């Protein structure tokens, strides 16, 4: 289902320097998140880190006869990675309420502070409990940032640039992963390399904390909280126009309707909210069960399993991180031209082929105790890069962009909370279970993830509507009420209101 670009022309707006700068500063929340994703895999493969916190894993790693697929299977080691996401699930609820009551800007500021305190605890950790508690604080920072940043960018961006600007969040996330992989490569053999790597997380957090002092609050948030004059002035400032009356009236009208909803979470249970809720939840499922986390979290571990030495595995992780960043640039320039559905459908085919090739080679040639032949190792590395590139210009950015733009104002913060918390929950599940799944399923784990990718492709072709160029305050009328399936939900609610 395609939507005409005329919707984007309804509201006059320019891409001002103010909007670009605010979007980039806010997107440093993605850099903060990405650095953590990238750093954990490298740190958990460092011998000095394993000897201090996970000695049993260190012994298994260096045991000559240890099973290739099971050498890193340890629940506490996985908890080091996954505890952040469990904390983020809980904190998303508080972030949602903070967004609505105090604004998007202060929520972003709180995210940076939580993250900074978590970095201090992790870098100075003397025992496992201190390490895990630091991860929990980092999780609070991630929960607050992932709740506020995509919403902030969607609300300040002009309609025709909304996709590209929102992808900046994912772009900086990939830069964070790449930067973390490079840091891990150079600190891997240092006696305190893991402390240096973890302390590096403070750099994006500090930038976000200082930069957030410069950004504006969104007009929607200001008007929603009763600051109409400030909202109008801010709208004029970020649009670069004096005459913004049409957009201001639209926000004002949407805000009045939203204020009639006293319990937005309860309103999410209405049938008219099902399209957005189901779409957001499924996107988060596909995003996390595409298999991307096994590469982003555990890339060095995965490459060591295939027979790469420690330094070679970290270098391979740098390579995939570079591909991830470059490919995300494709989404920045194409998402508002080609549309969301096209990118998802193309990537589903590409990612499926890459996963099947990887799984097939490992199933055929990597046994319990042998080393994967060099030629096949290189083929697998290429296949993983193909997979990462497809993810980077599709699910990676669109998993955050689409949920941030499809909810009406009355359920926007509550709806985005559900999307972010679903993402964090699924991330926790995959992060906590991947090494165990790798041990028990072996190469078949790649076929499991490829099956999820097939489901995503079918969903994108048959059910997902196109949302490019549509005002976020007109999404219900111009997208969902015209969709072949979801329009039935609005018909049911309309009948109930008449009764």
From TrEMBL:
Residues 22-468 form the Major facilitator superfamily (MFS) profile domain. One of its GO terms (molecular function) is monosaccharide transmembrane transporter activity. Its main location: membrane. GO terms for cellular component: membrane. It is found in: Membrane. It is a multi-pass membrane protein. Pfam families: Sugar_tr. Keywords: Membrane, Sugar transport, Symport, Transmembrane, Transmembrane helix, Transport. InterPro entries: MFS_dom (IPR020846), MFS_STP/MST-like_plant (IPR044778), MFS_sugar_transport-like (IPR005828), MFS_trans_sf (IPR036259), STP/PLT_plant (IPR045262), Sugar/inositol_transpt (IPR003663), Sugar_transporter_CS (IPR005829). The chain crosses the membrane at residues 76-99, 106-126, 132-153, 165-186, 192-216, 277-301, 313-335, 342-366, 378-402, 414-435, 441-464. Belongs to the major facilitator superfamily. Sugar transporter (TC 2.A.1.1) family. Belongs to the major facilitator superfamily. Phosphate:H(+) symporter (TC 2.A.1.9) family. This is Major facilitator superfamily (MFS) profile domain-containing protein. The lineage of its organism: Eukaryota, Viridiplantae, Streptophyta, Embryophyta, Tracheophyta.
């Amino acid at each position: 289902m395609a939507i005409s670009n005329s919707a984007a022309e309804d509201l006059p707006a320019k891409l001002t320097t103010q909007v670009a700068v605010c979007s980039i500063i806010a997107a440093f929340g993605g850099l903060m998140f990405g650095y953590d994703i990238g750093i954990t895999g490298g740190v958990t493969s460092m011998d000095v880190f394993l000897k201090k916190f996970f000695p049993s894993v260190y012994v298994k790693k260096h045991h000559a006869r240890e099973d290739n697929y099971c050498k890193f299977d340890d629940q506490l080691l996985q908890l080091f990675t996954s505890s952040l996401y469990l904390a983020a699930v809980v904190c998303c609820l508080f972030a949602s309420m903070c967004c609505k009551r105090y604004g998007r800007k202060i929520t972003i500021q709180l995210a940076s502070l939580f993250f900074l305190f978590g970095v201090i605890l992790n870098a100075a950790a003397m025992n496992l409990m201190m390490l895990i508690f630091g991860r929990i604080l980092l999780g609070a920072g991630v929960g607050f940032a992932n709740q506020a940043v995509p919403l902030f960018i969607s609300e300040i961006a002009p309609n025709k640039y909304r996709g590209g600007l929102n992808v900046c969040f994912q772009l900086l996330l990939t830069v964070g992963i790449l930067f973390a992989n490079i840091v891990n490569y150079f600190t891997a053999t240092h006696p305190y390399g893991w402390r240096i790597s973890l302390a590096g997380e403070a750099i994006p957090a500090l930038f976000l904390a200082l930069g957030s002092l410069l950004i504006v609050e969104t007009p929607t948030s200001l008007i929603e909280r009763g600051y109409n004059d400030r909202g109008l002035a801010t709208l004029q400032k970020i649009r670069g126009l004096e005459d913004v009356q049409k957009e201001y009236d639209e926000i004002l009208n949407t805000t009045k309707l939203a204020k009639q909803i006293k319990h937005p979470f309860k309103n999410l249970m209405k049938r008219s909210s099902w399209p957005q809720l189901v779409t957001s939840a499924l996107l988060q499922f596909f995003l996390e069960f595409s298999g991307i986390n096994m590469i982003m979290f555990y890339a060095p571990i995965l490459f060591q399993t295939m027979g790469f030495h420690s330094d070679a595995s970290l270098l391979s992780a740098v390579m995939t991180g570079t591909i991830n960043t470059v490919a995300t640039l494709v989404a920045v320039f194409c998402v508002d031209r080609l549309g969301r559905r096209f990118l998802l459908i193309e990537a589903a085919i590409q990612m499926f082929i890459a996963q099947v090739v990887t799984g097939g080679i490992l199933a055929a040639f990597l046994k319990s105790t042998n080393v994967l032949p060099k030629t096949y190792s290189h083929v697998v590395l290429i296949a993983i890069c193909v997979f990462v590139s497809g993810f980077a210009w599709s699910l990676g950015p669109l998993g955050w962009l689409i949920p941030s733009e499809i909810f009406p104002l009355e359920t926007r913060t509550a709806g985005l909370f559900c999307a972010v918390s679903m993402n964090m929950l699924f991330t926790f599940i995959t992060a906590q279970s991947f090494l165990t799944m790798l041990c028990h399923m072996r190469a078949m784990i790649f076929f499991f993830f490829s099956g999820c990718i097939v489901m995503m492709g079918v969903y994108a072709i048959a059910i997902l509507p196109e949302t490019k160029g549509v005002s976020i305050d007109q999404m219900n009328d111009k997208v969902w009420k015209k969709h072949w399936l979801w329009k039935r939900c609005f018909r049911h609610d309309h009948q109930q209101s008449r009764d």
